[in-house]
Amino acid sequence: MSAYSSRSPGTKPKRRRLTHAQRFLRFLVFLGSLGTALLIAFHNRIPDVAGIGLVLDNAAPWLGLAVPALLLLAVASRSRTSLAFLLVPAFTWLFAFTPSIVPLAWTAPDQSAQTLTFASQNIKAGTGGAEDSALALSAHQSDVIALQELDAGSAQRVTDALATMYPHHFVVGTVGVWSKYPLRDSRSLDLGLGWKRALSTRVATGHGDIRLYAIHAASARPNDHVDRDEMLNQLATVVRADPHENIVAIGDFNATSTDRAFEGISAVLDEPNQDEGLFGFTWPQKPFPMMRLDHVLVRGLGVVSNTDLPAGRSDHLAIKTTVNLPGQ
Questions:
Q1: What are residue 269's phi and psi, to 5 degrees?
Q2: What is the C-alpha separation between 115 and 203, in angstroms, rounded?
Q3: What are the CA-CA distances from residue 271 to residues 83, 179, 258, 267 (Å)?
Q4: Of 82, 62, 68, which is closest to residue 22 (Cα–Cα)?
Q5: Domains, the chain, ranges and CATH?
Q6: H helices within 78-153, ranges in order?
Q7: Which one, of 136, 212, 216, 223, lies nearest residue 179 by Cα?
């Protein structure tokens, strides 16, 4: 052994001590990891003070972006412990959201000989695009088309454009449904607002009827979402009391599936995953979708396809869902 060796045989190399700055970064990674995991897991339990609850609920999937940001701090800290901290929010996010982003194609039932395809879009009032949206959704082989935010004259233009293939329709205020199949027991729903932004009808397919709810929930903004919450709560109450075995609720709910106001309706109806997986964000179209405000929820029906697509001039993407008819 050389006389100039810095250590004796068998001695362990000294562990490099972190600087004060690196220890501080490690502490920040710890706090950030713990805080992010808690927000992901319990965002809907944060008091909705100054609208923070609404923001956190609807931004919940995006909280995962904190992990790569914290990773940069962990690398800068040169601490393996920092990297271990990151496992907590990463696994919390995966546990919370993986079930909802698995591709429907992996678990969907086989398509039967008799199916029904629903399409829906908030066409954005004032764009003059209701007819364009309706024709685009018709071209996608939709059997039932629901439109929200209809303005003056647009419902009649849609009816005229779809008259040949969709002879059955029912319109309530700014919400309308056009169908290739007869619509029965149609009625308006005010859902506690005092004005009507929802409807209920029965689609008579000849292979079993389907109760359809079409809704355009009131807008939701920080400190201004009481009307929206009331509509969703009352819709959940109506659906819970509905004796029909096969139900579809579709439209612009102005809430994401992680919104605490959505818990009531998601407890009585199921939302299918997207064909190709991920979240299926529908709003805004540009520069890119950031939230899924438009939903289709079902009970008693096998969903074989569920996707979104552009149509017309709206700032919302349309949604399109195909189900096997009852008994198929």
A1: -135, 155
A2: 13
A3: 35, 22, 12, 10
A4: 82
A5: 20-101 (no CATH), 104-324 (3.60.10.10)
A6: 80-85, 87-101, 130-139
A7: 212
Indicate the pTM of the whole model: 0.89
For β-strands 144-148 and 209-216, DSSP reports them as unpaired
Q: Are 311 and 288 in contact (CB under 8 A)?
A: no
What's the start-to-end Cα distance of the chain, in Å? 83
**Which residue is associated with the tokens 């003059």?**
128
Angle in degrees, CA 18, 20, 24, rounded to 5: 95
Contact 286, 312 (CB under 8 A): no
If we measure between CA atoms, which residue out of 30, 122, 133, 7 comes closest to residue 85? 30
Q: What is the pLDDT along the chain (328 residues), one digit of tens a residue?
A: 444 444 555 555 555 677 877 788 888 889 999 999 999 999 999 998 888 999 999 999 999 999 999 999 888 888 888 889 999 999 999 999 999 999 999 999 999 989 999 999 999 988 888 999 999 999 999 999 999 999 988 999 999 999 999 999 999 999 999 999 999 999 999 898 887 899 999 999 988 999 999 999 999 898 889 999 999 999 999 999 999 999 999 999 999 999 999 999 999 999 999 999 999 999 998 899 999 999 999 999 999 999 999 999 999 999 999 999 987 5
Alpha-carbon span 187 to 218, nearest angstrom: 19
- Which one-letter amino acid corresponds to residue 216? H
